[in-house]
DNA sequence: CCAAACTGGTTTCATTTGTAACCATCGAAA
DNA sequence: TTTCGATGGTTACAAATGAAACCAGTTTGG
């Protein structure tokens, strides 16, 4: 019987690595501010782009709309963002960070960057380049071939 | 204010990629047999190693013991594995796939391998090498530096 | 011996997630 | 216009998850 070596199976390795990295990184938004990952991504998206709709947020940060919806609701509850109705389309709301939201964002960004730097610093230049464009290539590969349903 | 480019932030990219790959791959165990990821990993671990304890399974496949426990319970319910009490330590059980479990495993392995091959086939040799040892290097990096409490 | 600390594994409970249904609004076509 | 399909966003419900408590059974140290 043919067997599969899980330890060297790419989907598994990738997931395990991403999970481990993500768990480590979560310290920055979870332990210090009690944010979930969707909340962090929402904050991050708005911090980066200024104002976005929920749909745009979902696309930018690869989250399902229910995750976005819930994350936005929680950040609003904290008064970290506000909603402004669109003038032409009453279904749409534009989301913007408040001062408090921006402050939290501004505080976390340097930590996030330091985290990434710390990680990459342990690799050789070749390994860094390898993983960075390996990831990019795989993403392209994944979305080129099997167009989903 | 300093901003973070989420799209190029390694933890995010890595997670998004792993998630996408994992979702695609799930078709092989979920859509066809209704397995969850922990159940698939359990099946895979036992298929590969023959007989293991729950603890060993958890280590091998990076799962929390509750996940293992539940996955084992479900596979047992399907009669895909059996438990044999350890002779010396009555806390321990040795898990083994039944004929039915092995059959399912044997059916999925070629599909899993084909999936991985298909993915890697879309990369150049350099990209393949890059990502493979980039992942390995990152894992080492992650577990070397910040020894968790 | 016996208590205390530890280990393998399960269960409970709260939180997070995914799916699908839903509501409102909008745009296009009849 | 009216109707019908798409779209922005929320909600309800079921399933998956994580943390911590738990129940054996085992080891260690006094």
Explain this structure to me?
Two copies of one chain form a homodimer. The radius of gyration of chain A is 18 Å and the shape is globular. In chain A, α2 packs across α4 and α3 packs across α4. Chain A is mostly helical. In chain A, β2 and β3 form a beta hairpin. The first copy, chain A, has a three-stranded antiparallel β-sheet. The C terminus of chain A is likely disordered. The first copy, chain A, has six helices and three strands. The two termini of chain A are 32 Å apart. The first copy, chain A, has a single domain, classed as Orthogonal Bundle (Arc Repressor Mutant, subunit A). Chains A and B meet through α1, α2, α5 and α6 of A and α1, α2, α5 and α6 of B. Chain B binds a DNA duplex (30 and 30 nucleotides) through α4.
Give the C-alpha Rg of chain A: 18 Å
Overall geometric form of chain A: globular
CATH superfamily of chain A: Winged helix-like DNA-binding domain superfamily/Winged helix DNA-binding domain
Please give the alpha-carbon distance between the first and last residues of chain A: 32 Å
Q: Which class best fits the helix and strand makeup of chain A?
A: mainly alpha
Largest interface: A-B, 65 and 65 residues
CATH topology-level fold name of chain A: Arc Repressor Mutant, subunit A
What is the typical, i.e. mean, pLDDT of chain A? 93
Q: What is the number of strand segments of chain A?
A: 3
Task: Estimate the strand proportion of chain A.
Answer: 5-15%
Report on the biggest sheet of chain A: 3 strands, antiparallel
Q: What is the subunit arrangement here?
A: homodimer
H and E order of chain A: HHEHHEEHH
- Number of domains in the coordinates of chain A? 1
Largest sheet: spatial strand order of chain A: 1-3-2
CATH class of chain A: Mainly Alpha
